[in-house]
Amino acid sequence: MEEGKLVRIVEVCKICPSKHSSSESQFSLPLASFDWISLRVPLLQRLLFYPQTQTHDYSFTDSIVPTLKRSLSLTLTHFLPLAGNVVWPEDSALPFFLYSPNDGVSFTVADTTHADFHHVSGGHPRQIHDCLPFIPTIQSSDSSTPILAIQLTHFPNHGFSIGFAAHHVIFDGRSFTLFVKAWAYISKLIANQLDLDLEFCPLPPELTPSFERPPNVLRNPFDYVPKNRSVKCNTEYLPTSNYLMATFQLTPTHIQKLKKRVLEEVEKEEAEELHLSTFVVAYAYALICFIKSKGGECKELLNFEFAVDVRGVLDPPVSSTYFGNCLSNPAALMEAREVREEGGLSKIAKKISHMIVELRRTRTVKVSTMADCIQFQTKYFSTAELCWVASSPKFKLYQTNFGWGNPNKVEMVLLGKNMMYLIDTKDGSGGGVEIGLLFPNRHQWEIFASLFAEGIN
C-alpha cells in the first residue's frame, strides 16, 4: 500500500502553552556554541509504540487524545522555545530561537487499519518507509523553521504510537529525553485523575529545564557570519527509504562476556587504565560486526565517533538540566583491517576508552565548526567508513510512561548510513543494551546477525 494511504489523518491542530504569565510574552534565545553544528542537520525523528493492555483505561478518543493534548500544553509552559521557531530574519546577523504568544506545536491525530502494529514496532528488518507514515513532517523555510511537531497514531485493538519530528538545533539526546519525560510525567498525573491546575503544573527539579546561557556556551564557533543564511534542515545525505532498520540486544550477561574478552586481550597495565563501561563494549562490538558485515565493500579506513555529554565537564559546569545541545564528539581513525583481525574488539574498545578518559582528565571540550566537518568530509569521504552512534542507555527511554504503561518499542530513524544508536532494553532488567542499525540490503543484515550472535553465544 502506498505510504500516504497507510494512515488516515483525523485532525491537525496546534497545541499552545497553557495560559500562564510566562507564555503571554515574547521569548527569544540565542544559539549556543554547541547548537551551531546542528543548524542544518536532518530532523531528529523518534517513535514510541505503546501496546493496548487490559490493565489500563484504553479509550483512545475519549481518554488518550485529550490527556496527551492537555498535558502537552501544560508541559510547553516550561519549554517555551519548543512551541516556537528557529528564525533568521533579514535584519539579524545570526539566527536565534523565538517564541511569540499563540505559537504552538503542530499536533496530528491519525489512525490506521492497514499497518501491522507488530511489524512496525518490531526489531526485525523493516524498511525505513514502513515507519515514516507515523512521523509528522515540518514545513520550513530558509528564514524560519518550527522546532517540533508531534503525531499520535491509533492502531485499533493494538495500541498507539507517538511520533516526533524535531529540529536538532536545540535537541541533543539528553534534552529530547528531558522534554519527553516531563510530558510523560504530567500526562501520567492526568491519566491517574489527579486534580491539576488548568494553567500550570510544576515539574520536579530533575525534569525542569534550564535555558540559561552562560558566557562559556555562547561563543559563535564560526567566528564569522555563515554565507548561507538558512535554518532549513538539509536532507541531501539521508539514507534512502528502502534501507532496512533492525535492532539487536545485548543482555547484562553478554556485556560481562565482552568486558572479560577485552581484558583478556590487553596487557595488565592497560587493563588498569581502561574505562570499560557498558557503552564502550557495546559500541565496540557493534562496530566490529558492522565493519565485518560489509565484506569487500568496506573502505580501507574506519573513522568512528560518539557524542559525550559535557554539561558536567565544562568549566564552569552547566546545569544537568541545561536544555540545548551540549556535546563533544571525540573521534578516532584506524585501518579497517585492524578491526577484522584477531583482537579487534580490544583495539576499538581501548580507543573509545582512552578518548573518554582523556576528556575527563583534561576537561578540554572541542566545539566542532562547520568548517571542521567540511574539511574532514572532504579528506576522508572516499577512503573511510564514517561511523557514529547516537543516544545512550542512561536515558532509559523504555521507562517513558504517559499513563498507559511503558512502550514496547522505541525507534529512532537514523540520519546516516553508518549510524547506530544505543538505548536501554524494554525488559527493565537494567544493564542491557538495544542497538539499532541501518543496512542497505537483507544480505548484509543476515551477515551482521550471524556475526553478532556468534560472538556472544
TrEMBL record:
Q: Does the keyword Transferase apply?
A: yes
**Which segments cross the bilayer?**
none
Is Acyltransferase among this UniProt entry's keywords? yes
From which domain of life does this come? Eukaryota
Q: Which GO terms describe its molecular function?
A: acyltransferase activity, transferring groups other than amino-acyl groups
UniProt KW keywords: Acyltransferase, Transferase
- Please state what the protein is called: Phenolic glucoside malonyltransferase 1-like isoform X1
Q: Which organism is it from?
A: Momordica charantia (Bitter gourd)
